[in-house]
Amino acid sequence: MLSLNEKFLIGSYKKVFLVKSQRGNPVETLFKLMLENGLIDGVLTCSEKKGKATPSLFLKANQVKVNPLNSYFGINTLLKRALQKYRLNKLVVFAPPCVFDELNKTQYFGIGSNWTKTAVALKVGLLCTGALTENSRQLEAIHLTGKKEKVKRFFYDRANLVYQLESNREIIVPVNVHHKYILTACRYCLNMGAKGTDITYVPKKEPNEGLFIVRSERGWYTIAQVQKIAPADLKLRISEKEETEELVSLLRDKSLLNVNDILERVELGLPTPKWSDNKLRKFYRAWNSIEGNFEEEVF
Known about the structure:
Radius of gyration: 19 Å
Strand content: 15-25%
Helix content: 25-40%
Number of helices: 10
Largest sheet: 8 strands, mixed
Low-confidence stretches: 294-299
Strand order of the largest sheet: 3-2-4-5-9-10-1-11
Number of strands: 11
Distance between the termini: 15 Å
Structural class: alpha/beta
């Protein structure tokens, strides 16, 4: 049986830091400091413009603004502009796991596709329990509150996904409810922890706080450089083990819902978004096996 444990749900990492920024959102602060000090030459992500998630390429520190909601659509449409028009070679990409699942594959596509290694200086993933459109998010909020009110931001508190509404009221979003409203492809994802990145960012209750799950040497070096440059702007301390365990609990509950949907479609012989036949066979064997070993990268 496939174990939905920390290794599978969050993946390998070096350290988990609780980060507090003196300049607002901690991941925005990280990118601004890197741009200001020449560590990178651009940030590719999504921002909120006129209430809509809009793919954005930032070249100046004072422009950087990430989307406070989990809607990151169309980021790949700006990659060509970043690489060919602006000739960027120290690019940061900030996005949910699905973007990196595809980005990481391109390095194996052959001649002309090695920019994934050469142009992307840092991959920062957003821990994601499923993305929503603006309409589905509104319907989810109505389901939970009984009235129409815009969601201002989302974060994770203990083992819960939480929405902050425009009235500043906070509501816990049960994973079984959230599962009904997310995009169809998100219901078959088993990489919610953004394992293929240098750093995974987890937004917390306080807008200027978050978790940085540092995975790679490149991520570790980046954090060290930024701390050396501006120790007062971005304060880090090693996170309590309890916080990681709470994340694992949340991701396990959501993964069980996703696994149920995957197995249902496999047994019915239906196509599954994001899954090839070979990948499904590997997953099905692992899920039904009594062996404890599996290849994490398969999923």
